[in-house]
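Q: Hi! First time doing this. I have a protein sequence and I read that you can turn it into a structure. Is that right? Here it is:
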Amino acid sequence: MKLQRLGGYAAIASVCVYLLFVAVLSLETTSFGDLSDPTKVMAGMSSAPVLPYVSDLLLLVDFILWFIVILALNERMQANAPNLTRIAMIAAAVGTAAGIATAIAQAQAIVAIAPTKDISAYRAFNAMTTSLFAFSSHAYGWVCLLIGFAVLKTRAFSKAPGWLFILTGIFWVRIPIPIIHGVAANAIPWLLYLAGSVWFGVALLRQKQPQPAAKEMAAAR
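A: Yes, that's right. Below is the predicted 3D structure, encoded as structure tokens:
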């Protein structure tokens, strides 16, 4: 399967996986109660570890799918925007690695920390994984900015998903700054990113794939 088509499917799949991830988190909130309460979270993780395991697995899969999408977008635009796409690929690799590390670390916490009921250890570990995820989001903020500008420069896609990614990047690049955001401010960049991903996915699947020169000559005869 060509990378462009694989990237299109990955973009659509990433949105579905993320929505499933949100649904599982909602179930965790219903089952465990306040997820900001370490006592309730550790008790819930010990008694019903399936939901946290599933959410961590979905998070890991989503990061892999996002990286495949960036690979496909890079292939489409690298000829006309080599610097932007090359830096975006580096940022995507860093962000994906940090995201996968977050998911694996959180899964290990279910076994290593939850049974101990050690609130201090959980808070320290949670601060570490939260910071790691924020780092990953910051990296993907730069990915979105760079990909968005590459779209505007190359015109390989409609301008709309490019602007959606640029707006997403503006939100996510600011994540490491200690500013308290409301629910709407946290949800807006995700909605923009998901809309842009679907748009890119459809565009990648619809766009005609470049043919080798031999095939083009044969088709012209």
